[in-house]
Structure formats: C-alpha cells, structure tokens
Amino acid sequence: MYIVVAGAGKVGYHLTKELLAQGHEVVLIEKDNERALEVGEELGSVVIPHAADEGRWLIEAGVERADVVVAATGDDEDNLIICQLSELLSLRKGRRKPRTIARVNHPKNEMVLKRLGVDATVNTTSVMLPMIEEELSAHPAVHLMTLRRAGIELMEFIISAQCPASGRTVASLNLPGSVSLPLIVRGDETFGPSPETVLEAEDTIIALLPIDQEELVRTRLIGESV
Amino acid sequence: MNVVIMGSGRVGGTLATRLSTLGHNVTIIDVTPGSFEKYLDSEFKGRTILGDGIDEDVLRSAGIQRADAFVAAAHGDNHNLMAAQIAKVTFGVKRVVARVNDAVRADIYGEIGLVTVSPSRIVAAAFEDALLDETRHEQDVAAAISERLLK
Questions:
Q1: Dihedral sign for Cα atoms in the order A191, A192, A197, A201
Q2: Is the pLDDT of residue B146 over 80?
Q3: Which of B76, B104, B105 shows the shortest C-beta gap to A77?
Q4: At what angle do helices B119-132 and B103-111 cross, to 10 degrees?
Q5: Residue A125 has pLDDT above 70, yes or no
Q6: Where is A186: in which H helix or E strand?
Q7: Cα A33 from chain centroid?
Q8: Are A53 and A87 in contact (CB under 8 A)?
Q9: What are residue A132's phi and psi, to 5 degrees?
C-alpha cells in the first residue's frame, strides 16, 4: 500500500517505521526542519521537511495516488485539514479518494472530525480510558473525588468474601459519626444502607469520609491499609 | 441579524464593533483573556464569550443555534476552517465566512462552498493598487468580510 503520514512526533515516527518494516511504501511529512532531519537520517529519503497542511507538499508527497493518509500531528485542527485537503486534492485530479485517518488529541473532537468527513479517528485518551477503568475496578479501594477545602473525600470500596466487613451489619463496623456510607451497589440494585444492613461480598460501597479517617475506614471495610 | 464572531483580534474586533454599530446582535468569542478589552471599541454593544470556537459547547453558549451568520476570524487558518465547518455542518448556520491566509487553502475550500476571505491576497492587491496608482479604492479586511456577510 502507499501511505502518507503527516507529523513525525512519537506517533507518526514509530508508525512510519513499523509500516516500512511491513513492506509498505511510506512518505512522512514533518514541518519542523530539525525533527525532519533527525528522523530522515534514520528513515532515509521518505521524509519531506515541510508542513502537510500546505497543499503543495501533499501533492509532492503523491497524496493523489495514496491508499491511506494518516494525520498524526499534535493539533486536531491541523489533522482535520490535512485529511480534507488530501481528499479534495485527489478528487481534483480525478483520482479516488484515499482513506483518511486522524489522530485526535482532544476527546471532544472525535465526533467533530468524523462528522466533517474523516474516515477514522484514533484517540489516545479513549483507547487508554477503558484500560485504566478496568485496572481501577479491580482495586478494592478507589478515590473518586476529594473536596480538599472541606477535608472530605469520596471513596469506593469493593467488598470481597475475605474482607472483615463481609457478612457484618453496618452498625457493627463501629465507624465514627463523621463517616457516612450513602450508597451500596449490589448487583443491579442501588440503595442507601440502614445500620442493620448486612454487607455482602461483591458489594460496592460508596463512602464519604474525612481525609484523616481513611486509614481507619480502609481497615474496617477491606482490612487493608494504604 | 444574529452574528457570532470567533477571534477578537484586530480584524475580528473591528468587524464586531462595526456590525454592532450597524445594529446587529453580535457575540464575539476568544480564547485569550484580555483580548476583548484590547480590540473591542467602547461602541460595541454585543456579548463576549471566553473560550475556543472549535468547542461545540462554547459555540452553543455563544448562541450559534440562533445565529444567522458566523465569522471565523482567528489566527490559524486550520482553526478557522474547522470552526467554520462546525458552524455550517453541525449547526446549519446559513452564512459562514472564514479568514484563510493561505491562498491555496482559501481556493480549495471556496470550491466546496465555504466563503473564505484571504487577508494576504487582499493586502497584496491593495499594495498593487497603491503602487500602480489606480483609482480602485482600497479595502480593509474587515470591510471585505462585512460586505460579504451583508450581501
């Protein structure tokens, strides 16, 4: 395949290297002269040291015969224009339009770019977020929010069968009056516990507590300190 | 006419004041605090919104849904082209004009129906007139944009 990559930052550079290794024909466009030279030394003549959002350099890169254009700069608006220009320049020459892929840096712009005709978007934040969330949800104690001025934090605890709180009533935990447990999520059900509520394994407990009580609450609920 | 302008620099600020004086309902958006005080005239009667014009939420709070016209007059060509297309495609604003310095981009986007004003081209033409001493009177960029909007 013939691929044009715009932007030789970490993303564009590694992508180009990888695509070349796979046997594709690749041209990389980078507007920063110094960076272009640096990358060019390693990758050879495939680097064009100019701005990809200026039509003439896209033409120079042979965009009208490209199968794919990847706009991988750190600016979403530049990536949008690079994709659109590639498409318009190809159509002007009577060629079929290349498939356009844009890197999105600000998650809010993902939908905008798609709506404005970019074929595919890659957003690092939305790739990483589910992974992070998954990591977090495996952890028994998660800080949800800190109200620093009030000295209060909102935390989530996941109870397992081994936890000291499992099988006990809320009242028997003997939590200080300044700690409240406003919410318990059990399966599909969400409810506010009473002192008689018995905590079960797999329960998710939302706790509102003074920051200096965190150690105590952790110990009583999940038997684990920081 | 309800007009939303992105970019309160010399061009956007002058245009905003001009349209406001003509009795239009103008909202001007800029990301830089202090730009309104710097470039808007005291005769400006419209609203100012601090934020980025490519952010749909910022555009909404500027009243883009009720706007008859949108002008992208900020600095970066790509920024202006993106904001102009959001106004046109997402919010269906009837009259959209973008300031695009690069003549190549101005032409290409002109071909697909976006109205563009290219200051570099206008200024070059004004210089040419001045040099060749012709009678065609010189236009400044703000006048060119307001003319296109009001046409």
A1: positive
A2: no
A3: B76
A4: 120
A5: yes
A6: strand A180-186
A7: 30
A8: no
A9: -65, -45
Q: CA-CA distance, B28 to B7, in Å (whole number)?
A: 7
Give the residues across from A72 on adjacent strands.
none
Tell the burial category of B53 from Cβ atoms under 10 Å away from its Cβ (0-12, 13-18, 19+).
Answer: buried
Specify whether the CB–CB gap between A165 and A193 falls below 8 A: no
Distance CA A226, CA A216 (A): 10
Is the pLDDT at A182 greater than 60? The verdict is: yes
Query: B7-24: b or e for each residue (b if 16 or more CB lie within 10 Å)?
Result: bbbebbbbbbbbbbeeeb
* Helix runs in chain A, H state only: 10-21, 33-43, 55-60, 76-92, 109-115, 124-137, 214-222
Local structure of A150: helix, strand or coil: coil
Task: Mark which residues 33-92 of B lie under 8 Å from A by CB.
Answer: 54-56, 76-79, 81-82, 85-86, 89-90
Q: Do residues B84 and B149 lie in contact, with contact meaning Cβ atoms separated by under 8 Å?
A: no
Report how far residue B27's alpha carbon sits from residue B70's, in angstroms, rounded to the nearest whole number.
Answer: 10
The overall pTM is greater than 0.90: no
Distance in angstroms (rounded) separating the CA atoms of residues A49 and A57: 9
Interchain contact, B82 vs A76, CB within 8 Å: yes
Q: Which residues of B touch A80 (CB under 8 A)?
A: 78, 81-82
Per-residue pLDDT reduced to its tens digit, A42-84: 998 789 999 999 888 999 999 999 999 999 999 999 999 999 9
Query: Over the stretch B2-34, which tens digit does the pLDDT of each residue have?
Result: 999 999 999 999 999 999 999 999 999 999 999
d(CA A193, CA A181): 7
How far is residue A49's CA from residue A41's CA, in Å, rounded to a whole number? 12
Residue from the list B78, B89, B102 with its beta carbon closest to the beta carbon of A115: B89
**For residues B65 and B56, is the Cβ–Cβ distance under 8 A?**
no
